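Work package 3, deliverable 3.1, input record:
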Amino acid sequence: MSMKVLLLAEHDGNTLNPSTARALACANGLGGEVHVVVFAASAGDVANAAAQLEGVAKVLTVERAENGVPLAAVLAPQIAALADGYDAVLAPSTTFGKDVLPRAAALLGAPQVSDIMEVVDAGARSFRRPMYAGNAIVDVKVPEGVKIIGTVRTASFQAAAEGASAAPIEAVSVAAELPSHSEYIGLATQQSERPDLQSAPRVVSGGRGVGSEENFRVIFSLADKLGAAVGASRAAVDAGYVPNDMQVGQTGKIIAPDLYLAIGISGAIQHVTGIKDAGIIVAINKDPEAPIFEIADYGLVGDLFTLLPELETAIG
Amino acid sequence: MKILVTVKRVIDYNVRVQVKRDGSGVETDGVKMSVNPFDEIAVEEALRLREAGVASEVVVASIGSADCQQQLRTALAMGADRAILVRADDIDMQPLYAARTLLKLVEKEAPGLVITGKQAIDDDCNQTGQMLAALWGRPQATFASELKVDGDSATTVREVDAGLETIRVQLPAVVTTDLRLNEPRFVKMPDIMKAKRKPLEEIALADLGVEAPPGLETLTYAPPPQRSRGEMVEDVPTLVSALKSRGVL
């Protein structure tokens, strides 16, 4: 029996978020027909981008004014209604997916698999996921006859590539009563010319060792030299050096760049959980006993304020 | 207004969790148990709302064995007014089951606000608050780092991937807490003594008439693949040439 899979697209109204292509790789691993659904006020560009992705059989658009902002209470009843014709419903395990999917799952009376790292066996409906901040990895099975509902840990999957031909796009209407008890006020975002932290192939992160908001310029400078995104440990965020959307770790962003530079970061388990899937980890810290060195591919002990300018020069 | 806060008993966050050799679970024998840290933030936020005169009563609730009394007493020592333990012994209490159970308490207590941790640090599911809100048919404000209650609505700043999002929800509503919402208070010895005399009601899960939902079957537990320690390099030129040879520079 081939599965029908519904994947929830994440977007900001204009651009398809890269987390969608990563979640799609997981959806494709279920071995069925994958439909991507775009809830939006106007789905045009986002739907076109989704249609380009390899393995998408069809893009569904649900356009209505209320879908112009991402409110879980508004989206969940529509997802639940649409889920009727599907065996599985997936969403990326971003704050968007984590917010909306459990609400839809509850309406469907089905359990949710959070943070899928791997489809262990699609036929056996088994999935791998982390628990205890990644200190235990469990295989769970969705019982027969129950819809598979899951959020996909994006760092565990390579983004699906663009396919040779575009999938058809179909506008659908969903019969669901939408509540008016939730109101979207706005989003405060840091404008940045730098690459996106969650999809950048290179990331430079600073920790408490950087010492101040002003000192963080050495991190930004190195990142710019490398064309890298900038991250931070929770300690640096809590100390107010940088805004919270730069936080890497269990309670921040979980990332998997090809190259990760941890500068002045001690390496608390919370932080390490966020970078476990990175290709190569480099740690620079003045404390030779810092736990970050236990997991780093390359460690360099010394003063970051001396070493970073040296590094910038050496990169050329 | 009454606030209902959920409190989950979990392995203390300072404990390095070990998977049992036979893959049947994680080691809990002799391991320190605590209030889920996100729930502690939820309790603190409720207490601050009471202290600000917004809330009149803070009720804490847990689901589980008699051992959960310890965590409820901790919440009472922080300042919660009373506690409810839904006794569920030897039951695999997954998020949807917990949400259905909490819905029964919500119907019984009629709180104006339910505050829960955004996730429990054992299963890391991040589902229960959202599921409760769905079943209750009320708004949700997840990952809150700021909460202002004004009459019959609450305005919440939420930590989302793109930055800080603000939403306003009509009460009653479910709010789930992120780390930066507050810093929980330190519990003093006299408060622990006082908490022993505060009411702690026990209700048997069976008496609530909760329909058990389908749950996930856990097949195996395994330790995570370890990243091994790499090499320490002497200086920047050595580092750069190593990174170049690995093709990442």
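Chain A has a mean pLDDT of 95.
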